[in-house]
């Protein structure tokens, strides 16, 4: 699948609730700030942990997010080639934050940020 064929969605067009969101950033990026309901599997671990996607809702695509959209595009392409219905989130967590979507940090009381 070429990058131009990859299903992509803008953050502003994503549902506000019930979103099946997979965050493929590294542990330190996740800890700094992430979407509250996201599932975290770093990109490099995705092939060995793909079974964990079963905990996401089955009736909708898996929206894949990273910091800016590059790693999530690779993950979404791999997932689609593996039989999943995956959509890359354009602009990643940077766009998520700019759109004012909720974020939490791994450390209680810390202000979430995108790294």
From TrEMBL:
Pfam families: Rhodanese. CDD domains: RHOD (cd00158). The keyword Coiled coil does not apply. InterPro entries: GlpE_sulfurtransferase, Rhodanese-like_dom, Rhodanese-like_dom_sf. Residues 15-105 form the Rhodanese domain. One of its GO terms (molecular function) is transferase activity. Keywords: Transferase. Signal peptide: none annotated. The keyword Zinc does not apply. Coiled coil: none annotated. It comes from the Bacteria. This is Rhodanese-related sulfurtransferase. The lineage of its organism: Bacteria, Bacillati, Actinomycetota, Actinomycetes, Pseudonocardiales.
